[in-house]
């Protein structure tokens, strides 16, 4: 096959006419079998005024995609080079389009979702803005439960972005993982475990609670099988200060996170003996774990005092969850006396 710049692929069927000759670009004559033309619309579309017009229309005037739009975008993405100046705007159009459920269905039907996910592994070598918008597109696609199985195939690549030096890339990766962690299946737990230390390390950013990390921690704690791994991680200095805030959006998530975690500890009868195998401290010191920060003598006393105050909070949801947390805490056994953990060394 030979490729012409026009987007036509011309094959000469008869050797006596030579190889890969250019022929007039017209409809083939069925009676003449000396040549045939195959049209590759993607090559013609890529970089053409038609693609620019499509992007402009979808970005400024049209919110809902049509089947024809989806086909054109897929064709462009299948052949577009990562250095193309149109890659960023076309991914932006897709990211914006995910706000509408009908667009999500159309993207899935025409395998646009698959194509975007397939681009993720190689995107780490792209420019920063294009790399981030691709990840944002995936994060938005993950809002649709119908896309979760497709996007979960790239879970390892998304988790790897949490180690990026670019803060925006980390934030968008957390958004994607938050959407993907709504229902964590048992076989996925090993893939989500590496997320925990990243969340705890970023719980405080420049003296402020990081809402993105907190949202993800809430979802992780809602999976009972994740809780022992969560509590075995290294704790955060001043952890319970997350309850001392005037920002209700932070407070409601903070109390929800601790309530979900405590409810799992109660329901699964988790004691430190069950947490110990997941202790990430090099010397397995229990006093460095999140479990100790919440349920050790000092931490538990502070937690009970702060929670009791929150039972009178003006936000009914905060007050209700604080009351439930106090009740659940009474079922959690006291932390083992100092020195008990040495028997396990």
TrEMBL record:
Residues 86-256 form the Armadillo repeat-containing domain. The keyword Transport does not apply. It is found in: Membrane; Mitochondrion membrane. Pfam families: Arm_2. The keyword Repressor does not apply. GO terms for cellular component: mitochondrial membrane. InterPro entries: ARM-like, ARM-rpt_dom, ARM-type_fold, Armcx_regulator. Its main location: membrane. It comes from the Eukaryota. Keywords: Membrane, Mitochondrion, Transmembrane, Transmembrane helix. This is Arm_2 domain-containing protein. It comes from Caenorhabditis japonica. The lineage of its organism: Eukaryota, Metazoa, Ecdysozoa, Nematoda, Chromadorea.
């Amino acid at each position: 096959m030979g490729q012409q710049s026009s987007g036509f692929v011309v094959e000469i069927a008869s050797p006596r006419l030579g190889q890969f000759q250019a022929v007039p670009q017209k409809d083939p004559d069925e009676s003449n079998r000396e040549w045939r033309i195959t049209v590759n619309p993607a090559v013609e579309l890529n970089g053409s005024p038609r693609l620019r017009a499509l992007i402009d229309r979808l970005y400024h005037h049209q919110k809902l995609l049509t089947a024809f739009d989806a086909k054109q975008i897929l064709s462009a993405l299948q052949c577009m080079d990562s250095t193309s100046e149109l890659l960023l705007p076309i991914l932006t159009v897709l990211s914006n389009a995910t706000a509408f459920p009908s667009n999500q269905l159309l993207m899935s039907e025409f395998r646009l979702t698959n194509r975007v996910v397939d681009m993720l592994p190689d995107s780490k070598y792209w420019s920063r803005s294009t790399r981030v918008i691709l990840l944002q597109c995936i994060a938005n696609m993950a809002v649709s439960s119908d896309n979760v199985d497709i996007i979960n195939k790239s879970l390892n690549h998304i988790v790897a972005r949490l180690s990026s030096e670019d803060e925006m890339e980390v934030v968008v990766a957390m958004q994607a993982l938050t959407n993907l962690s709504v229902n964590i299946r048992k076989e996925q737990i090993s893939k989500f475990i590496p997320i925990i230390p990243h969340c705890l390390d970023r719980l405080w950013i420049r003296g402020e609670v990081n809402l993105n990390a907190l949202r993800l921690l809430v979802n992780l704690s809602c999976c009972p099988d994740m809780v022992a791994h969560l509590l075995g991680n290294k704790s955060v200095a001043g952890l319970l200060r997350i309850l001392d805030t005037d920002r209700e959006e932070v407070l409601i998530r903070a109390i929800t996170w601790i309530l979900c975690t405590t409810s799992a500890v109660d329901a699964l009868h988790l004691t430190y003996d069950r947490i110990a195998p997941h202790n990430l401290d090099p010397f397995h010191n229990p006093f460095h774990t999140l479990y100790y920060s919440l349920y050790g003598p000092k931490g538990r006393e502070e937690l009970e005092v702060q929670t009791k105050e929150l039972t009178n909070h003006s936000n009914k949801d905060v007050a209700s969850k604080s009351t439930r947390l106090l009740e659940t805490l009474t079922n959690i056994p006291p932390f083992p006396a100092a020195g008990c953990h040495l028997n396990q060394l």
